[in-house]
């Protein structure tokens, strides 16, 4: 298997085509990239901005240039020696009439050849939750009619521009008569003869008849556990593998599948041993990827979490919590907040999924030899408590049983529920425990379905409750509210980082190491900047108090309370600090307006995801309008008192964030794993949550500014524009291409600086018998910039790096300056940092 030395993620659509991507290949080659990592490229719904709403898994999207465009891009990659990794979506497709498989199912119901391709409950009519109101209300308003579908020429039930095909048996031989139907009662009768029923989108959480992706009703689950469905959904991908046009695959949302391991084994058998495969999989704290999965690892969200241990000041954890509560008021314990969010999701957004599990459990319980007195209420409570208590995405039980680690996790979860403050009925809990463990119910269809559906639900429940609810409620340190993080992370420490990297090198040395993706809550350099707040919690809190006072007249007083409330004010100032462009002047009206447009989009999403005073399904316009007005006030050119204060206060945080960004970048490039560069993040990535993080970067400037090999330029402008970061990436990626074994299999050695500034350094080495490198990078340097020091290189006297015997008796050169080092037992940090405050020493 050819393991990438680095990947570069490109987001197709929104103007990015195969032709344009082909034009970027020379730049990617110069940057040092080994593999282009492409977002989904197969046909998606009209106007799709991301491609995960697939309509045809075997057709190259014409919007991108179709097959011809893909082949030309593929040829260009080959000519330059770059590989290609495709992001594929086996879990779901678009529940759209643009999807020919789905359209056929709508038209023919259970008689469709594709009826078993999708996860549909055929014990009832297929639900189509795409009406703006109830069927009765829509019909009464005259919004439903029987018309000819302009695409097929067949009779259809029309709702605005959507034409739902009538099943042939409902009109065969009398199409003209059916098309003449206009009376409401006749439309009702015709609708009742269909294998589907139209309903309001608001009823989907309770009544949906198909498995969806998270809570998105427009995405229907695929049954790729069925060999026929697998073959049909992967036909073109497998052809590309056989034609040597694809070198790797990224599997989207692997935890959504009925049997992830079984799917991956089938995929591996189909693609052979040489294709690089990684999965999108969120690992909880301490959770390890199953060793028997035939893949190279994850897409790297856990790596982002690990970086927090390096760049966050763990000693300020409690002080920052106290400071936040002083502004926001008493806040729930983060784990209690997560529980509340999970209950909200289970009782509302996933009500239908929970109800399906409950019905299955009650049916299976009737045949159980245990206690028969358990009622529906007790079973529902026990089921809900188990779902809410799950600390990770899921377990991986199959018809063959539960793996040992999954059984151990299940036992522990049940123990916590049983002994916790919300313990449900013991008989109901015990039955569910036995059922999930495979100790009752056997391998009956109902028992297997219960186990699969339970495991498919815990992931979405966790994701929507933590990432898309709790992280938008708890604003203490926004940088830690990231995909892959915990609700209540332990205080950060370098020691924990070293432990994580040692395990990473052992368990998944070929996994992707991400710092920004299309799904992260903010760009990597915004996160790096916000980490610095942990170094000065009291100073930050005092600044927030001052800014709140300056802008107090912009707070609206509504019946539901202040808007924004203090906790949201804290969030707004922190989010603004993260996204503020390094070169933005306070009197730049155009720049402020451009930032305002992006910021307001974020504000709306943040408020609605929190699900407290407004939601996506029921927006509170008065509240949202008041908070938007406040946010706009912050960026008004007429609010110079605030802007000047904010920009001046931000300066040391900004400068420290730039240093953090270089350290973060170096760690990603050198630590175990394959560094993944998200489009544009080779320069400063100060983006907010999607869709902001999916904007296309200025590729022309990126290519023009990539300096040829030579002395590293470290002027102030190079730091602030991100050119320095781009240069660093190019240097190290070239080294990775030259010495792949050092980075892939090299031993990971934690190093421990000593002396006056030891706590302000991160250092580790990678070593094989033939080669070695030593990384020395700064951390927690906000104090230096707050004291007005310009050059960090002058602060390292009386600080040394002891070297273990395995690293001694070697000559090294600094990758960025070419300076030679011949250390014996220790290395002077002041000497290593003469030119700039970081060093990567490579053995010669």
Automatic annotation (TrEMBL):
Superkingdom, natural source: Bacteria
Record's signal peptide: none
Domain Glycosyl hydrolase family 13 catalytic positions: 6-433
Pfam families (alphabetical): Alpha-amylase
Sequence segments annotated as region (Disordered): 502-525
Protein name: Malto-oligosyltrehalose synthase
């Amino acid at each position: 298997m050819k393991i990438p030395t680095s990947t570069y993620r490109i987001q197709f659509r929104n103007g990015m085509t195969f032709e344009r991507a082909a034009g970027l290949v020379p730049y990617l080659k110069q940057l040092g990239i080994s593999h282009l990592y492409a977002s989904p490229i197969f046909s998606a719904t009209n106007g799709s901005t991301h491609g995960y709403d697939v309509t045809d898994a075997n057709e190259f999207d014409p919007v991108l240039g179709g097959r011809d465009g893909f082949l030309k891009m593929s040829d260009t990659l080959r000519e330059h020696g770059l590989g290609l990794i495709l992001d594929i979506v086996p879990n779901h497709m678009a529940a759209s009439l643009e999807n020919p498989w789905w359209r056929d199912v709508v038209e023919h119901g259970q008689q469709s050849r594709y009826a078993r391709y999708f996860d549909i409950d055929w014990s009832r009519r297929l639900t189509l939750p795409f009406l703006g109101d109830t069927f009765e209300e829509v019909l009464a308003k005259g919004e439903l009619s029987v018309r000819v579908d302009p695409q097929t020429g067949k009779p259809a039930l029309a709702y605005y521009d959507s034409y739902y095909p009538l099943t042939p048996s409902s009109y065969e031989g009398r199409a003209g008569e059916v098309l003449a139907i206009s009376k409401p009662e006749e439309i009702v009768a015709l609708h009742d003869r269909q294998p589907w029923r139209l309903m309001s989108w608001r009823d989907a959480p309770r009544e949906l008849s198909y498995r969806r992706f998270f809570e998105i009703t427009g995405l229907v689950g695929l049954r790729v556990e069925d060999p026929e469905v697998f073959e049909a959904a992967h036909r073109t991908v497998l052809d590309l593998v056989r034609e040597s046009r694809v070198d790797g695959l990224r599997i989207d949302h692997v935890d959504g599948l009925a049997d992830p391991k079984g799917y991956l084994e089938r995929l591996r058998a189909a693609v052979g041993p040489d294709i690089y495969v990684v999965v999108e999989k969120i690992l909880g704290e301490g959770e390890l990827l199953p060793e028997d999965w035939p893949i190279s690892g994850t897409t790297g969200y856990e790596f982002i979490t690990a970086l927090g241990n390096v760049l966050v000041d763990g000693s300020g954890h409690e002080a920052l919590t106290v400071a936040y509560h002083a502004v926001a008021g008493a806040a729930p314990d983060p784990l209690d907040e997560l529980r509340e969010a999970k209950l909200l999701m289970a009782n509302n957004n996933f009500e239908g999924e929970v109800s399906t599990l409950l019905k299955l459990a009650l049916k299976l319980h009737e045949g159980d030899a245990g206690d028969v007195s358990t009622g529906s209420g007790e079973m529902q409570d026990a089921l809900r408590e188990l779902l809410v208590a799950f600390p990770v995405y899921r377990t991986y039980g199959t018809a063959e049983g539960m793996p040992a680690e999954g059984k151990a996790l299940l036992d522990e979860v049940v123990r916590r529920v049983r002994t916790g403050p919300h313990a449900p009925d013991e008989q109901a809990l015990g039955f569910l425990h036995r059922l999930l463990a495979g100790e009752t119910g056997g391998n009956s269809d109902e028992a297997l379905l219960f186990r699969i559906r339970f495991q498919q639900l815990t992931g979405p429940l966790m994701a929507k409750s933590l990432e898309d609810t709790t992280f938008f409620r708890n604003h203490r340190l926004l940088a830690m509210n990231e995909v892959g993080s915990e609700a209540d992370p332990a205080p950060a420490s370098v020691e924990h980082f070293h432990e994580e990297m040692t395990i990473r090198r052992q368990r998944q040395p070929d996994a992707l190491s991400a710092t920004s993706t299309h799904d992260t809550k903010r760009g990597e350099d915004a996160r790096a900047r916000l980490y610095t707040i942990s170094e000065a919690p009291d100073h930050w809190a005092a600044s927030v108090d001052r800014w709140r006072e300056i802008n107090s007249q912009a707070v609206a007083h509504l019946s539901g309370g202040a808007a924004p409330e203090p906790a949201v004010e804290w969030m707004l100032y922190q989010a603004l600090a993260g996204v503020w462009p390094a070169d933005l002047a306070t009197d730049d009206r155009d720049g402020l307006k451009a930032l305002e447009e992006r910021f307001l989009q974020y504000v709306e999403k943040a408020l609605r995801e929190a699900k407290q005073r407004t939601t996506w399904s029921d927006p509170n316009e008065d509240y949202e309008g008041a908070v938007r007005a406040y946010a706009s006030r912050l960026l008004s050119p007429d609010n110079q008192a605030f802007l000047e204060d904010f920009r001046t206060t931000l300066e040391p945080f900004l400068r420290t964030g730039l240093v953090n960004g270089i350290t973060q970048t170096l760690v990603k490039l050198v630590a175990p794993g394959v560094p993944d560069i998200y489009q544009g993040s080779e320069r400063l990535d100060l983006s907010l949550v999607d869709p902001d993080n999916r904007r296309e970067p200025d590729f022309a400037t990126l290519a023009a500014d990539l300096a040829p090999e030579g002395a590293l330029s470290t002027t102030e402008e190079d730091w602030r524009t991100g050119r320095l970061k781009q240069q660093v990436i190019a240097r190290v990626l070239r080294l990775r291409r030259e010495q792949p074994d050092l980075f892939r299999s090299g031993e990971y050695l934690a190093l421990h600086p000593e002396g006056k500034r030891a706590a302000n350094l991160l250092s580790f080495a990678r070593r094989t018998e033939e080669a070695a490198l030593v990384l020395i990078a700064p951390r927690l340097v906000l104090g230096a910039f707050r004291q007005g020091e310009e050059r960090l290189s002058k602060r390292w006297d009386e600080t040394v790096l002891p070297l273990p015997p395995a690293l001694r008796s070697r000559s090294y050169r600094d990758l960025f300056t070419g300076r030679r080092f011949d250390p014996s037992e220790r290395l002077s940090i002041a000497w290593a940092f003469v030119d700039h405050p970081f060093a990567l020493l490579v053995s010669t």
